[in-house]
Amino acid sequence: MVNDSRDRGQIMLIGAIAIAFIVLGLVAVYSAQLTARPATTGSVGDSTAEATELNREARRNARAITIRVNHDQPYYASRAALNASVDDAVANYSGLMAETYAGSRGAAATVRYDGAARMGTRTVRHSDGPMGGASPWHPVDQPSDLGWFVFNFNLSAMDKGESFVVRVENGTGADPPDTTYTFTRNTTGSSVLSVEVDSETGATILGRGTCNPVGNRSVIDLTTGESFTSSCAFGPGIDRLTGPYTVTFEQGDNAVGKFGIVTDTRPTNWGALNARPDCTGGTEPCNTYAAWNVTITTGYESGALSYENTQNVTVYRGA
Q: The whole model's pTM is what?
C-alpha cells in the first residue's frame, strides 16, 4: 500500500554542506472566537478574510519555524531549552506580523507559541563518523512514525564499492513489509553515490539513482527519495510507504557522515526506541528533543472584528 504524496514546503540547507529542511504534513485542529463590532474602518467581511489569512500564514510559518529550530542546534539539553528557542523564534515572527498588519491594514495581529503539544525524538549523529559497526543496529527499534530522515554522507571518507544498507520495515506488517535502501560509493570516477531501492525479497528493484556530490558531500532525504546536493531521485521514499516503521542499519561501518531521524517517540521511551544515550553525554549517535506537534494562538483586532484562534500544528508528517 502507498500513501498519497504530501505537499512539500521550502527546503533549506544548513550545516557543513547542507542539512535538509523539509516542511511536510499538517493537521490543524482549532477553536476560534469571533466577535463582530460596529465597523469603523472596514466591513466585518473584509476583517474576517484578513483574520483567516493571518491564521493560515501563522499555521504555515509556525510549522517552518519549528522545524528550523528543531534542527538548528546539534542537540538540546532539555525540552524546556527547545521550547524556549521555539518561543523566541515565534515571538520574533509575531513582531514582524504585527508591523505588517498595522502598517498595511490598520489592524493588530499577534502570534503566540503555547508550547509543544507532543515532544518527539531526534536521533542524530551531528559530527562525521561511521553510521554503525559491522553488526546491524536499530536507530528505530520501536514502531514509530517518521517525519524526517536525512543523511549527509562524506564520500571522500568512504571506501569505493562498499555498501551501506538501510532497511525500513512496516511496523504493522502491512504490504510492503520491508524496503531496503543500499548506498554505495562508485568504484570508478569521482565520489559519486549510487542508491538502489529493493523490495523485501530483493526480487523487485523499486528505484535507482546516481547522485553527484557537492564538495564530496551527498545529502540524501530518505523521506522523499531525493538528493539535496544533486538532481537525482531514486524513490520510493518513506513517505510512499505505510507506517509506523522500524529502521535497521546494516554494514554501517561502510558509510561515514552525519544523519538525523525524527520520530514521534516520546523522550520517555528512548530506551525502547534504540537504547542510545542523551546527546548531552557527548556520545554519538544519540537522542535529543524535537517538537512533533505545537500549539499556537493567533489574535486579530480591528475596528470591525476581534478574533482569537488556538490551533494544534503537526510539524512533521505522520500522526
A: 0.83
Mean pLDDT over each residue of the chain, to the nearest integer: 84
For 86-125, write each residue's pLDDT tens digit: 999 999 999 999 999 999 888 999 999 999 999 999 999 9
Domains of the chain, by residue range, sit at: 28-119+292-314, 120-291
Q: Is 80 exposed, middle or buried (0-12, 13-18, 19+ CB in 10 A)?
A: exposed
Determine whether domain 120-291 maps to CATH 2.60.120. Answer: yes
- Does residue 241 contact residue 176 with C-beta atoms inside 8 Å? yes
Dihedral angle sign, alpha carbons of residues 231, 252, 139, 235: positive
Q: Please, which residues bridge with residue 196 across strands?
A: 182, 208
pLDDT in tens, 266-289: 999 999 999 899 999 999 999 999
